[in-house]
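Narrative of accomplishments. A recurring question from our advisory board has been how the design workflow behaves on a single, concrete structure rather than in aggregate. To address it, we present the structure tokens for one chain from the evaluation set, followed by the sequence designed for it. No filtering or post-editing was applied between the two.
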């Protein structure tokens, strides 16, 4: 195809929310939108038109022009989103590529995971899209991020940018609102003096914090065409084993005392999550919904679900820290996804049903996991979410935290 013909085919569609976001975005912004709101395309439109000075046909209107100020593009995303080449697909309508010779204006796109963020500390005069919020605390990722943004323009994409004010510290530092984390905490955090570990009791000057957050947050809201149906499936658990672990602090699987609080919670969850009634519940759901995405937490849950697939002779795919398989095809199948490995960065429009075999501690992760089937291009109007849990005190405590849009806190649970 001649070059001019290729140029004439370059066009994208943006809704009103996306176009408004492109106009409002600036370097240092957080583009906040729910799962499936089109953050990727909006971010690329901003990069192409505002950062690089190019023009492209939008909704059939306008014309293409080359970039006046081309910059290489770096996209830092999840490992799964990198491996499935999803961003390369998003870049295609803009005629930009990971191969410089195939890109308009000679720019090069680099797509990599957060795990490799440190590799890009030396990059200068480029543009970064940080996809999915990973900037929590003060670890290696945050340190690398703060070094990168000193020499490059950037935006951050997130469905849930922050639960507490401390979640915003890295972005506030990157925008120059505070010199360092210590200055922020001294000014705004009040600590509880009676806990055994540092615990922020409250924040002060929250009006200032809200003003700073709002100055860099660009929100996109869109009317979903789907209807979510959430059903809680209550299952049984071995109360005698549960009480032995809890009251006697005894590891019933290794016949020894429990060594730490983290181990205690793990054991309590194992007693609850490994109960056969959970598998029986999944069997019931399969009779109604033959194509299931099932999220789980622990390896012993995966083994239970694998055996279920073998027993029912179902096609089974997996995505976890060891296996990266695609969603199966066919009339009936299971797709087993470990929360931390696959709760974000991919989508599936082959099914209308997700099962949460066990609950995750993180509200954000639960929201992201639910969004895997809630996409703009899904053919389904009704989406079904099955939450399997028991009436054990640990399941109830996790459910309560998620219901309040908070993360489950092990130490707070053990203090109760």
């Amino acid at each position: 195809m001649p070059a001019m013909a290729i140029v004439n085919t370059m066009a994208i569609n943006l809704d009103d929310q996306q176009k408004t976001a492109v106009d409002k975005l600036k370097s240092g912004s957080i583009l906040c939108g729910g799962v499936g709101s089109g953050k990727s395309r909006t971010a690329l439109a901003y990069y192409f038109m505002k950062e690089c000075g190019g023009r492209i046909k939008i909704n059939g209107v306008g014309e293409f022009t080359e970039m006046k100020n081309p910059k290489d593009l770096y996209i830092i995303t999840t490992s799964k989103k990198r491996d499935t080449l999803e961003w390369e697909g998003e870049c295609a309508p803009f005629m930009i590529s990971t191969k410089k010779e195939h890109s308009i204006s000679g720019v090069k796109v680099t797509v990599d995971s957060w795990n490799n963020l440190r590799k890009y500390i030396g990059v200068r005069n480029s543009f970064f899209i940080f996809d999915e919020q990973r900037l929590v605390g003060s670890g290696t990722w945050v340190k690398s991020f703060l070094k990168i943004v000193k020499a490059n323009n950037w935006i951050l994409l997130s469905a849930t940018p922050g639960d507490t004010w401390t979640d915003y510290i890295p972005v506030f530092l990157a925008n120059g609102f505070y010199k360092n984390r210590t200055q922020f905490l001294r000014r705004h955090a009040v600590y509880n003096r009676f806990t055994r570990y540092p615990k922020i009791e409250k924040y002060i000057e929250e009006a200032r914090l809200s003003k700073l957050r709002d100055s860099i947050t660009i929100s996109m809201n869109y009317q979903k065409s789907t209807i979510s149906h959430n059903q809680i499936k209550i299952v049984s658990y071995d109360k005698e084993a549960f009480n032995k672990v809890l009251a006697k602090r005894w590891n019933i699987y290794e016949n020894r005392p429990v060594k730490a609080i983290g181990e205690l919670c793990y054991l309590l969850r194992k007693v609850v999550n490994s109960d056969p009634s959970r598998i029986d519940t999944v069997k019931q759901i399969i009779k109604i919904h033959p194509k299931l995405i099932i999220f789980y937490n622990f390896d012993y849950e995966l083994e239970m679900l694998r055996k279920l697939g073998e027993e029912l002779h179902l096609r089974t795919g997996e995505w976890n820290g060891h296996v990266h398989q695609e969603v199966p095809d066919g009339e009936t199948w299971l797709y087993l996804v470990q929360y931390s490995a696959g709760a974000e960065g991919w989508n599936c429009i082959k099914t209308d049903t997700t099962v949460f075999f066990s609950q995750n501690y993180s509200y954000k992760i639960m929201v992201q996991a639910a969004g895997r089937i809630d996409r703009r291009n899904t053919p389904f109007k009704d989406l079904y979410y099955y939450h399997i849990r028991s009436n054990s005190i640990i399941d109830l405590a996790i459910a309560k935290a998620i219901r309040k849009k908070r993360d489950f806190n092990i130490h707070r649970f053990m203090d109760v």
